[in-house]
Amino acid sequence: MLVAYDPQWPLEFAALQQTLLRAMGTLAVSIEHVGSTAVPELAAKPILDVDLVIASPESLAEAIRVLSPLGYIHEGDLGIAGREAFARQSEDVPRDGTGRVWQEHHLYVCARDSAELARHLAFRDQLRRNPEIAHEYEQLKRRLAQQFPRDRAAYSRGKTEFVEAVLRIQPDAGSNSSIGFPSGSSI
Predict the structure, then answer these.
(1) CB-CB neighbours of 115 under 10 Å
(2) Helices (H), 68-130
(3) How far is Cα 119 from Cα 185, in angstroms, rounded to an integer?
(4) 59 touches 84 (CB < 8 A)
(5) 51, 120 in Cβ contact below 8 A?
(6) What does the alpha-carbon distance between residue 49 and residue 147 come to, in Å, rounded to a whole number?
C-alpha cells in the first residue's frame, strides 16, 4: 500500500543509521537511505530501504557476524548480484538494548564498488533532482499497486522499464527531464 510521503522517514533512517554505525564501527564505509522513502514528497510503501556499504566483498563475513546479534538474518543475494539481503527477526531489530520498535525496513549490504549500489544511488539521486520524474514514478507505482495489489513480484517487475530509463538519463540533463510514459502504460 502506497502512502503519502512522511517527513518522519528521514528521521527514522537517521536513528537507524546511527545505531548501525555504532555496531559496525569502521566496517561500515557508509549507510545510505535509498528507495522511494529517500525521495522527499514521493508517495511510497512505508518501508525504508537501507544500503550498508562495506569496503569489499571480503568484508561480508564480518558484516554478517556483526549484524547477527542485532537480530538480522543473512538471506544471500536473492538473485541480485552485489546486494546481500538481511531479514529482521522481529520489529525490535536492530536490537540496541532499548527495546525500540523500529520502522519497517529492508537492509542490504553492498561493497562500495558494487554495480547494484551504484544503481540504487543513481536512481535515488535522479528522483531527488527531478521532481517531474519523481511524479511520473509515483503515478506508475499507483497504477501498479491497483493492478497488482497482492503480487509484489509483478509490482516490482512493472517498475523495471521505468527504472532503467531513469538510469540512462545523464546527471547533467537538468531538472526538466521526463520519462514520458503514457498514463495508460502497462509497465
Answers:
(1) 12
(2) 115-129
(3) 23
(4) no
(5) yes
(6) 23
Residue with cell 561480508: 60
Give the separation between CA 145 and CA 104, rounded to whole angstroms. Answer: 19
Distance CA 159, CA 111 (A): 25
pLDDT digits (tens, 9 = 90+) for 137-161: 999 999 999 999 999 899 999 999 9
Largest CA distance in the chain: 50
What domains can you pick out in the chain, each with its CATH number? Answer: 8-113 (3.30.460.10), 121-173 (no CATH)
Phi, psi angle pair for 74, to nearest 5°: -70, 125
Q: Which amino acid is at 126?
A: Q
Q: At what angle do helices 8-24 and 60-67 cross, to 10 degrees?
A: 110
Q: In terms of pLDDT, which residue wins out, 173 or 47?
A: 47
Cell of 126: 535522479
Cell numbers at 84, concatenated = 546481500
Q: How far apart are CA 34 and CA 13, in angstroms?
A: 10
